[in-house]
Amino acid sequence: EPEPAPAPAPEQDEDEAGGALATQLLRLEQEQNQLLRELPPLGDPVTHIYRPLDYAWEPHSRFVRRYCRSPKRVLFLGMNPGPFGMAQTGVPFGEVWHVREWLQISGEVQRPHPEHPKRLVLGLSCGRTEVS
């Protein structure tokens, strides 16, 4: 099974890329994502692993560049990406309608490989709502 291509590097222009903090965060995410890719396969009963930072990098990086431009006092206690949240958008806690309409995030979302036939990734055009 071919490894997915690594996500593109964040732009170097700090104004366009959302500032130095966003650029640094995106680089750290890419480094952590690479380390996760190097873990051994989980095996049965796990048959599918979705990696939204690979296939939904474009909207994810737009979110980071727009909303992570300055230090904030934030504590993430947990994250349930869900099949109709971050799995569709690449945005943490990213229910599709809110990402697209309220946060005004756009971008191409590709299909994960392999894709579970009951958990299709439709990206920002997904009509389902994440209820968690």
From TrEMBL:
| Gene coding for it | Smug1
What is the protein's given name? SMUG1 glycosylase
Which UniProt key words apply to this protein?
DNA damage, DNA repair, DNA-binding, Hydrolase
Q: Which top-level group of life is the source organism from? A: Eukaryota
What PANTHER family does the record point to? SINGLE-STRAND SELECTIVE MONOFUNCTIONAL URACIL DNA GLYCOSYLASE (PTHR13235:SF2)
- Example GO BP: base-excision repair
Coiled-coil residue windows: none
GO molecular function list: DNA binding; oxidized pyrimidine nucleobase lesion DNA N-glycosylase activity; single-strand selective uracil DNA N-glycosylase activity
UniProt-listed SUPFAM superfamilies: Uracil-DNA glycosylase-like
